């Protein structure tokens, strides 16, 4: 396995990163870890930090959720140099990107429902939550006008392997044609999908260093295809962190209890305690101890982050609440 690499030691250093919360669910301990690691590595390597609120492609954003997200990031000690940019403020750049892809016969409208797609897929795929879009359902590829925003649009996925190097996971080789097929880049809710929005924004905001959960490792390959199709440079440095898991080994979720930052804060837990727990999840320091964001940032290196999953259970909850 290739050793993890720390962006602070890479030349030339990264220019810009983004902290990109989705205000569709309240910030929980898992997101807090990603954002804090992202911020700390950016500050140490001198990269500009951009705050981008990703409020597209999700359930409706609850009133006040954006303000609460920003307030909690500040409470943790995270700061930024630009933003907040709010994706829903202006859909023009995403529309332009889609128009370009449609005109180049690289995107097409698709009204098929999930059950129609599943029925057309050759065999049910065990353990795969999303049925890959079968190539047989792709219409003839023609230059088109992006003239209907209220239907799904799919991207024409080429039969190629995408290779990239992840700072944490090492070399990757992923074939999106086999894993997802032609994926949705515009949704019938008249909004770009996450995949398109993230590529357009990372490119126009000059982001060359990305930190996020490794549930998105696969998405990085889809995004690489979009960068190539749009003629945009791919981000240079990618770091996908293992997710925080519950005691049952499953991704931290509501069933593991209320791990929202806001809940801990309202119970009187100090930000330094939350950061201390996050530090222990990153192999920083020995025993659990309180720490400021700046102390965490000074001590963190990518090589100490555990290779395996980190877990949150009753012991960690008890430590947070024992102030
Ligand atoms: N908005 C996404 C999230 O909160 C992050 C997506 C990304 O970093 O590319 O999970």
Give your account of this protein's structure:
By secondary structure, this protein is of the alpha/beta class. It has helices at 29-45, 65-76, 92-103, 114-120, 176-179, 194-204, 217-230, 261-266, 271-281, 293-299, 314-320; strands at 16-19, 48-53, 82-86, 107-110, 152-155, 162-166, 170-174, 184-187, 191-192, 209-213, 237-241, 244-245, 310-311. Strands 4-5-8-9 form a four-stranded antiparallel beta sheet. The protein has a three-stranded parallel beta sheet with strand order 1-2-3. Strands 6-7 form a two-stranded antiparallel ribbon. Helix 1 (29-45) crosses helix 9 (271-281), helix 1 crosses helix 10 (293-299) and helix 3 packs across helix 6. The two termini are 40 Å apart. The model has no long low-confidence stretch (mean pLDDT 93). The structure holds glutamic acid (GLU). Glutamic acid binds next to loops.
């Amino acid at each position: 396995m290739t050793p993890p690499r720390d962006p602070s030691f890479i030349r030339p250093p990264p220019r810009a990163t983004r902290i990109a919360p989705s205000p569709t669910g309240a910030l929980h301990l898992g997101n807090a870890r990603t954002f804090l690691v992202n911020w700390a590595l950016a500050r140490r390597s001198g990269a500009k930090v951009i705050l981008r609120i990703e409020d597209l492609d999700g359930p409706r954003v609850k009133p006040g959720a954006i303000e609460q997200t920003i307030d909690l990031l500040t409470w943790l000690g995270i700061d930024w140099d630009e933003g907040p940019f709010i994706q829903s403020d202006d859909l023009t750049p995403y529309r332009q990107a889609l128009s370009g892809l449609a005109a180049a016969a690289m995107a097409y409208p698709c009204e098929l429902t999930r059950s129609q797609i599943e029925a057309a897929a050759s065999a049910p795929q065990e353990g795969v939550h999303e049925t890959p879009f079968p190539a047989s359902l792709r219409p003839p590829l023609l230059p088109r006008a992006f003239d209907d925003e209220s239907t799904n649009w799919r991207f024409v996925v080429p039969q190629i392997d995408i290779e990239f190097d992840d700072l944490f996971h090492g070399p990757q080789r992923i074939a999106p044609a086999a894993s997802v097929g032609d994926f949705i880049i515009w949704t019938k809710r008249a909004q770009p999908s996450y995949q398109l929005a993230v590529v357009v924004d990372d490119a126009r905001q000059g982001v060359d260093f990305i930190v996020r959960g490794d549930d998105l490792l696969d998405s990085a390959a889809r995004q690489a295809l979009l960068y190539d199709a749009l003629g945009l440079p791919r981000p240079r440095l990618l770091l996908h962190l293992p997710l925080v898991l519950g005691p049952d080994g499953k991704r931290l979720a509501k069933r593991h209890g209320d791990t929202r930052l806001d809940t801990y804060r309202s119970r009187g837990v100090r930000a330094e305690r939350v950061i201390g727990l996050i530090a222990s999840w990153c192999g920083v320091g020995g025993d659990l101890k309180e720490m400021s964001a700046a102390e965490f940032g000074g001590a963190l290196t990518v090589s100490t982050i555990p290779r395996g999953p980190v877990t949150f259970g009753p012991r960690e909850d008890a430590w947070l609440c024992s102030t």
